[in-house]
Structure to design on (86 residues):
């Protein structure tokens, strides 16, 4: 079965303002919600926004992850609970 972009849903996102690292909870179709680490957002020279692969995580990224992971865990659990209600 081919990838269908209409089935790909972003449920929640977080962005590290300092490093541009993005986290998101995604669900494809009726699948389970999953955490995606990346991409990394940045501002181009012309002022427009761009994204790139997250690459290796710096200490700042790891510290930020440790701060938001509890919130991420709660959101994923909420998604599973909502899924069980359907």
């Amino acid at each position: 079965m081919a990838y269908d972009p209409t089935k790909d849903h972003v449920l929640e996102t977080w962005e590290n303002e300092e490093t541009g690292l993005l986290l998101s909870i995604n669900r494809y179709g009726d699948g389970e919600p999953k955490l995606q680490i990346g991409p990394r957002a940045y501002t181009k020279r012309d002022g427009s926004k761009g994204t790139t692969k997250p690459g290796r995580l710096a200490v700042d990224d790891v510290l930020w992850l440790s701060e938001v992971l509890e919130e991420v865990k709660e959101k994923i659990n909420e998604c599973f609970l909502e899924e069980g209600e359907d």
